[in-house]
Design a protein that fits this description.
Elements lengths: L2 H11 L4 E5 L3 E2 L39 H4 L2 H9 L2 E4 L6 E6 L2 H10 L4 E4 L4 E6 L5 E5 L2 E4 L5 E2 L9 E2 L2 H8 L28 H17 L4 H16 L7 H13 L4 H15 L2
Helix pairs in contact: 6-7, 6-8, 7-9
Amino acid sequence: MSEHLRTALDLAASRIPVLPLRVGKVPFGNCRRCQDNVCGGRPNMKNPGPCVCPGPCHGWAAATTDPDVVNSGIWRWAWLRASAVAYHPGGAGLTVVDLDNADAIIWARENLPATQSVPTTRGEHWLYLGRMQSANAVRPGVDIKSTMAYARWLGFGTGTMADLPDAVRALTVDKPATVRPAPPTVTVPVLAGGGQCPHRTPAYLDRGIAMAEQRITAASSAVHATVYRTFLAVLSTHGRCGCLTEAHTARLFTAAQAKGESLRHCTDAWANAQTTLGL
């Protein structure tokens, strides 16, 4: 049994969800059936986990406390190739304040309650009891890792773990708001005949977009997969005709976001569909 697997089993027994990391401190890539999240599985904003794939897919959402999964054949293969053990802090009811350099540590000592600390390669992890939303770069050299994130397991550290303070929660609230980009304009080859669809009327296109909106709205499960398949169907019919407009794209994105999809997921699904079709 590898050292990483032994550590992972010990953590799982303590109800700390674990997953393997490969070289570069990143999760193992999704398996073929889950590539680009076409499986409709997790993580996503509406249904954030855990992953239901038998392999260590979907990054943080693969983290598990089930010893049978941790010690299964496909996971053993991953542990043999792993460079580190990671865990899902939010799944363990924890928040990690990742202090990436000496200046960040000085700031934390001056502004945050003392708590359990773990040395890292360049700084320290401060662990608090309680979960919150994760966020990167909440201030110079400081990341928050809790729900929908993973952190490397580097040991128990020293000190007594304190409850998650409002001062840490405020770090995400006080972040400057980011401006969300508008849904991307579809760029497709325009036909010599002025871009008019040669085999469909404008009324047919409008009905098709309306049906696509309805299909997304009616999805009760696997929303991410439904959105991707719907985008694929629309692009396969009209993606090469030059008849799709930004207004059509916005209607589809709006329907998807109403079902809980983020703008990033919509943009990725649209781009993946274009790539699949060679657009």
